[in-house]
Amino acid sequence: MPPKFAQIYIVDPEMQQRAERRRGIFADLESGTLLDIEQMMADHNPFAKQFLNYAEKLRADRAEGKDVVDLVYRLHEKKSNPRTHNLPTVSEVGATLIEDGNLDKPRDILLWAKDHRLLRLFESNPMYDPLQYPLLLPHGESGWTFTNEYADNIERRSKREMSLREHVAYRLFQKVGDESALHQGGRLFQQYCVDQRAKCEQEQLRWIASHQAELRADQYRGVQDARLNEATTVLNEGEVF
């Protein structure tokens, strides 16, 4: 498939300020804490050993004298249509999907491996969540995929596969005695929730789009049954009262 640019935008009014604080070498953050987090990820996160993060790539590019792109995130108020393009008036995290949610194609995500290979990843891959949210899932806990199943001790299920919505509900449910890093993530946790909701919506819409034949057949049979039972007539169908 051809490469795609950003297919989903996470919108956070405070993102620009946070991005500006994190530029350079994190001058206003506790360097000791950052080193502890980096060491923790290197020791316990399996993906940190396989893939480069952006900071590592920037350092390597600078060391080799390569041109480094300085990314800046800004929200601009649209003056021409203020009623539809105003900046957010409350500090909430949201998402914007483009191209009708890209129902025909999954999100296009590229990973840069430490052996300099580029790998493509989709949001239905179980590695998507731990790679997108390494601080919320520090041990690389797998996300959802189509083959997820219920535990063997769960009975009376009409199906074995776990849906994306059910997987997200399990993740968001706080367990007794479980000090979940996920639920202590602050605004990053809000972004995770918004992202998962967007994934659920896209997955449901993809299912509807790919099952149109069955859905329309259902409606057609219902109309035919009603006509055969003389419960209504063709003339009355769609009549405005």
From TrEMBL:
InterPro entries: Helitron_helicase-like (IPR025476). It comes from the Eukaryota. Residues 167-230 form the Helitron helicase-like domain. It holds the Pfam family Helitron_like_N. This is Helitron helicase-like domain-containing protein.
